[in-house]
Amino acid sequence: MKGWILACSLSLMASSSFADTNPFSYVPKFEVPEIASGVGFLDKQREAQIGTKVYREVYRVMPVIQDPWLEDQLFSTFSQLLTQTQLGKPVGLLLINDRQINAFAVPGGLFALNAGLITHARNLDEVVGVMAHEVAHVSQRHYSRSQEAFKGQGLLALAGILVGALVATQGSGDAGTALMLGSQAAIMDKQLNYSRNQEREADRIGMQYMYALGYNPQSMADFFEVMHRETSRVSFLPDFWLTHPLTSQRMSEARLRANQLPKIHKPRNQEDFDILKLYTAVISQQASEQKLLSLAKQNNFAGQLALAAYYQKSGDYSKAQDTLNTVKLHNKQHNLISIIQTDIYLGQNHPDLALNTIQSIAKITPENRALNYKLAETYIRLNQPNEAQKIVQKFVQKNPQDVLGWELMYYAANEDKANPLQAVDVLRYRAEAQFWSGLEQEAVKSLLQAERLSKDNQSMSAKLKKRIREMQQEITAKI
């Protein structure tokens, strides 16, 4: 498994500032086409297959960031947007370690954001504008409607999504941004007019979604202008961008649409977003020590917290501790403080101190994946694998494609020397992590090996045979 798959960290989105309700007394009545209500079961099933297949492919070929705290922050906001739609449970939301501005969506509810989208944004509302645009693509079934309109190009379109997404990842970070907002439209270069209409529809409906939740619709238009400025800094544009340019007409329409809505009067907590933005920059290796030091010297809480994370990730635990001590002087409660402190102690090989730091806060909030995964990691370091597995099991049961969760289960099983089925558990947990990270054939091989080792345990053998069949069916499914 690739080293970057396991990177345990952290959740703050429980804070009310990221989940405000609409502050207006007047809310316009929007008319969003109820496309999903007319979709049959087989159509939805097929779209879910597409989403999970691409999920595994993205994991296999792209640098997915595994950081529970970041994932939880973004997924909480993303879940708010989904409440405005008739979409069911999404496949997931992935964060890609790329500094270019990009987001894309896939049928079935798979959404992906580049780290560069967050680090270029100036507030949470701008990020939500991009998310809302992509959610609108899926809720309006643009992929499926395009396939129906242009028969025989389904698989080509699916491949196009991946190729288009990879354009940004493989490009030079210094070259600028790929600017692939609204990626589903761009996969069909022979249907440009149809695709551009879908882009405009996604802009319109996405703005309605974000406004209904109390986010500033002006931010969608603002971020269009940010992206437009980025294009002027590059000497080339990828083919993907040429298929659906951010035209002045589209920018003007977004601004006009936002101007027609009542103004947002309740500002959000900018410090919360600054923490999210700077921490993303640290995790994606976009932050410089000099910049963070400059912010820290200004007694900037977000800057100091990010600097502590920067030193901790760099392995300089002494500086990380000194910086975190300064952070604590602000007397602010923040989950990142506990998580970074735990990581410092683990890095210094003091798992007992790490447990004292993380145990109580994690147990108070058992639903918090970030805190509890850090507690599970600490238990593994303390050679208490059963305690770790009890924590992680409930999360992977709720979300079976949680790669980091299966990685933790694997590491815990590897330490469980007293378990008579240790070798079987190690192999089956490893198989799940392999499967959902795109290593499909390797996953099946791991399960086959586990099944051979469990031949004397009929119950476990039957369970493994069933899972092998399920994996093989998903691998060979024609979508």
Automatic annotation (TrEMBL):
One of its GO terms (cellular component) is membrane. GO terms for biological process: proteolysis involved in protein catabolic process. Residues 74-255 form the Peptidase M48 domain. GO terms for molecular function: metal ion binding; metalloendopeptidase activity. Keywords: Hydrolase, Metal-binding, Metalloprotease, Protease, Signal, Zinc. InterPro entries: Mito/Outer_Membr_Metalloprot, Peptidase_M48, TPR-like_helical_dom_sf. It comes from the Bacteria. The keyword Metal-binding applies. Its cofactor is Zn(2+). Residues 1-19 form the signal peptide. Pfam families: Peptidase_M48 (PF01435), TPR_19 (PF14559). This is Peptidase M48 domain-containing protein. It comes from Acinetobacter equi.
